[in-house]
Amino acid sequence: MKRSLVLITLLLILTYIPLSSQISENHIGIRGGLTSGIYYQNLVREGTAEISFFAMLSVNPNSVRATFMKIVYETNLSEVSDNLVFTWGYGGHIGFAVTDYAYFMGEKYQFAHEKFRPLAGIDGWAGLEYRFTSAPLAVGVNVKPYLEIMTPGFFTLQPGDIGISFAYRF
User: Fold this and answer.
1) Which long-range contacts does 67-71 make (Cβ < 8 Å, 24+ apart)?
2) What's the whole-model pTM score?
3) What are 59-72's pLDDT values in tens digits?
4) Domain CATH number, residue 45
């Protein structure tokens, strides 16, 4: 069941086709960090900015998260390099964890048995991305702070989820 859910989610992310007449670019990549995973991103040019739909699937030994965000590629840092772009965005995530403990306010709470614990949260995004002109690759450094609520009644605030991403552009 768990594997089927992961495969179905992955197929939905990878087969997303933009229904737009505008010129778009796609990225598929990996992000390493506290919440690491594989992601798909569709960028559409709107005026002087690029707007992207970002979907990431994070699978850990005891949890699965699906993150969906809107990321804006607005400022080209041409003083440093024409290929370096500042990004910012927002979104949310949903998922579940199966654990026999929880941390709350620095304290560890132990459960008698492992519990299925649904979770949801809101996410932010800020980062720098470098796009290579000689190859269809992009490398980024980003921070993705989030606030997460997990049943039964615990929440997590993570202000510094710093990550590195590598993407193939097509």
Assistant:
1) 67/35, 67/37, 67/39, 67/91, 67/92, 67/93, 67/123, 68/92, 68/93, 69/123, 69/125, 71/41, 71/125
2) 0.79
3) 988 899 999 999 99
4) 2.40.160.20
